[in-house]
Every structure is written in C-alpha cells, then in structure tokens.
Amino acid sequence: MPSWAPPWRSALLAVLLSLGLATSGWTQGSAPGHRRDRLWLTLGAGLGRTGASAPAVTNSLAGGAGLTYQPGLLLFGLHTEGVWNPLRGDILGDAALLVGVGTRGAHGHLSIALGPALSGGQGHPFEASRTRFSSELSLAIHAQLLALALPSLGGGFTGFVNLNHHQSFGGVLFNLAFGQLR
Question: How far apart are CA 4 and CA 7, in angstroms?
Fold first, then answer.
C-alpha cells in the first residue's frame, strides 16, 4: 500500500465529521436570516514535518498565509504554506485553492477545506539524493480553529498537509486572523 494512503483515510474522515458538525445547527452564531459574509486574512508560524518515510521525516519550521471567504457554511480560500529545515536545507511550499465547510459561531470558528495546489521546493525525499521540483499538482488539506476576540481579530491554529508525488509535507501553525470574522 502506498505511503500516502493513511492520510487520505484520515482526511476523508475529517471532512465527513466536519460536514456533520457544520450542518447540525448548534454551530450557528446568529439568528436565521441574519447572515453576514465573512472575509479574513490569516498569518501564521509554527512547526512542520517533511518526508514521507521514516528516515526522511524531519522537524521543520513552518509558515503560512491565507485569504478566506465564507458566504454561508461553505468557504473558499487561497492559501500558501511552507516548511523549512535549516539543518538539512529542505524547503517545500504550496499555493492552494481550497473549498470547505466551516462553522459560523459568534466566538469561534472551525473549518476544514481541501483543494488542488501547486507545490514545489527542494528536499531529501530519500536520504541518498536531493530533489528539486516545481509546479507539481498536489492536494492540500487544511483544518482551522480560531477564537474570535473581537469582530475583526482572532487567533488560533491551522493544521495543513500537502500530498504530492515527490515529498509530502505538513505542519501546525499559530495564526492571527484579521477581517470580517463575525
């Protein structure tokens, strides 16, 4: 079985659970009929991992930025994330178009999204060689949890994974969010 199979199963389970939560009604933060479109920018930094097999898995620094629009329960995003390992010289990143579902709570936000991405970088997918690749089509998966301190400011976490043919990567970011959050 390919090494990417388990993350696909986990991603499918996360999407199904997220759909159930987002459509259950308990996540609604405003009265029916009073819906406001939301648009926000997130900036984040954290830790990531590169590599698909045990010898190549390494801890890395991670960073990302994203713009998300949520007109209802569905959301659409343009995000970029990357990981960097200064000791090995690995640097991998992506730019993704995401579609997903999200809650519309007054004091918090939970979402999951996935979509196509262009990924690239250089790294050691196998210890013996260094590989450089660019503009490879891949799959990006994002999950985001935000606490909304103010209508236009929030903070939280984003988990991301990029599944690609050369060297998959992922991480967890601490985010600040700015925009129309409530």
Answer: 6
